[in-house]
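S.,

As promised, the flavin-adenine dinucleotide run. Input:
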Amino acid sequence: MFKVVNTLKHDLVIVGAGLAGQAAALEARERGADVAVVSKVHPVRSHSGAAQGGINAAIKPDDNWKDHMFDTVKGSAYLADQDAVRILCSEAPNAIWWLDGFGAPFTRQEDGTLAQRPFGGQRRNRTCHVADHTGHNLLHTLYEQMIRLGIRVYEEWFVTRLLVSERKFVGLLAIDLLKGEMSLIQARACILATGGAARIFGQSSNALINTGDGVSLAYRAGLPIEDMEFFQIHPTGLLNGILMTEGCRGEGAYLINAEGERFMKNYAPQFMELAPRDQVSRAIQTEINEGRGFEGSYVHLDLRHLGEEKIMSRLPQIREIALYFAGVDPVTTPVPIRPTAHYTMGGVDVDTDCKTEVEGLYAAGECACVSVHGANRLGGNSLLETIVFGRRAGINAAGSLKDAAQGDVPQDLVSSDEHRLAEMLGRESGESIAELRKEMEDVVRENFGLFKNEEGMTKGRERLRKLRERAGNVLIPDKGRIFNQSLVNALQLEAMLDVARVLAEGAIRRQESRGGHYRTDYPKMDNENFHHHTIIRLGADGEPEFSTKAVVVEDIPIEAEVKY
Ligand SMILES: Cc1cc2nc3c(=O)[nH]c(=O)nc-3n(C[C@H](O)[C@H](O)[C@H](O)COP(=O)(O)OP(=O)(O)OC[C@H]3O[C@@H](n4cnc5c(N)ncnc54)[C@H](O)[C@@H]3O)c2cc1C
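Predicted complex:
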C-alpha cells in the first residue's frame, strides 16, 4: 500500500515548522531559494508556541553580550562550545530587532523600551517576553511572514526517512497524513528543525508531538548524535507535567516545602529560586524524597505575595493554566508542583554553520546540538537559539545551492522504506503501541531521570533492548489511509526508542555529574576525564558506536565546579 505516488522537487526542504524551521525558511526564501517546509502538524501547533517565559538578549545599556556569554557557559557546566555561545549571545540583540521589526508584540515598559525579566542563572534581567505567552506570539509573527512570502508548507505530512547517498543529502520520504499517500521530495539541501524529545519521559512539559523524530531520522542515516545524555528536567511542572514558567520565579514566586520553609536557601543561598534549573529540580526532588514534600510527592510554588495585579498582567496564562489544570487560583492558593522533563540539550551534531557531516544536510533548533547549552540550558536561551541558528541554517543552506547539483535518489532506499511501512501496516497481530510506549516512559523516568546510577542504567538499557525487539512487531489496528494516527504513533514510538537508546549509551559512559546528568555513584564533575562531548552513531553492525569530541574553549576558563 505504501508506494511513492508523487515526486516533488524543491531547492531546499525544511523539516519542522517551529521557530527554527520558520526562521530558516524566511531567510532562505529572502535569498531566492525555492523552499518547502514539511511539518507533521499545522505550523502554529509546533511546540515553540507553548514557550511561556521569554527570549534572552543583552540589550540594556548596563548589560553586555559577553556577560550573557559568561552566564551561558557557566550555566552549561562548562560543556557548551564557546565559539557557538559567542555567536548566540553576540547575535541576540539582532534576533530581537528582527522579530520586533516583524511586529512581535513584546511587552514594553512605560518609556516604550522592551521589558526584560530575570531568569535563572543570569546576573541581569535580560529575558524579553510577550507577557507569559512569548512563543505563541513569536510563532504567529513568523507565520505571518511565511504567508507574505508564499512559502510552500506541506502541513500534516510526516517525514519517515532521509535519503542520503554517498554522504550527500538527495531527498526525503514523507506521508501526507490526510490522504495516506507517500511522496518523495527531492532537494539539494535539507534543514532538520524537528524540535525536542522530552516525551520519552512520559511526565513532560512537552507537546505530545515532541518525540525526537529528527534525531532518529539522522541516527538511522548514520549521522553522529551529540550529548543525548543531557535532558533538562524543569523544576516547576504541575502534577500532570504542564509547565509553570520560570517566569513565575522570575517575577518573585517562592518554592515552599511542607514545613513552610523556602528551602532553596539550603541549596543555592545566593540565587535562591533562580539558581539554574538542574540545581532547583534536584533540590525539589530531594525535599520530596526526604519527606518534606506535600503528600510525599510535591512542593508549593507560591505566587500569592506578588498580588493579583502583577499576576494578571505578567502571568495571565499561568493563572489560567493553574485554574484549569490544577484547580487552584495562584492569586489565593499556592500551586502544587514537581519537576517535569522539559528540554533536549543534545541532538544532531552540527558545526556553528549548522552543517552536519552529510553534504547538504543542516540542523537547527532543539533537535540540533551546536552546543550552546552544554550540560544545562539557561531559560530563555532556547527560543534565542531557534532564531539565531535557524536564520543561520537558512542563510547557509541557501548559499550552498549555487554549487550543489541534485543527487540521484537510490531506489533501494525508497523501496526499503515502502516495504517497511507496508509490512508494519499489513501485520494482523502484534504488540500494543500504547503499552510499549508506557513501559519505555517508565524505564526512562526510573533509570535515566533526575538521579542516575550504574546499576539502574544497566538494567534500563536491557529493558530498552527488549522493548526495541517488541517494537519490531507492533500492531497497527487502524488499516485505513486517512489520518492513520496509530501509524503515526508507531513511527513516533520507534523514534523515541532510538532517542532513549542514544541517551542510555551516553549516560552509562559518562561517569560524572554535570548539569542535567546527575549520577549518585559519581556525584562530582570530573573535568579531567569527562570534559568532552559524547558522540553516538549507528555502526554498520546495527549497534551504537561511541566516541568523544573536544569542547571548544575560548576565553572563559573551565572551573572545577559550578557554584552559585
Ligand atoms: C512548555 C514549554 C515552555 C517553554 N518556554 C520557553 C521559554 O520561555 N524560553 C525559551 O527560550 N524556551 C522555552 N522552551 C523551549 C523552546 O520553546 C523550544 O526549545 C523551541 O521552541 C523549539 O523550537 P524548534 O523550532 O526547534 O522546534 P518545535 O517548535 O518543537 O517544532 C518542531 C517541528 O518539527 C515538526 N516535526 C517533527 N517531527 C516531524 C516529522 N517526523 N515529520 C514532519 N515534521 C516533523 C513538527 O511538526 C514541528 O513543526 C519551552 C518549551 C516548552 C515545552
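DSSP finds 16 helices and 21 strands in the chain. The longest strand covers residues 335-344.

- D.
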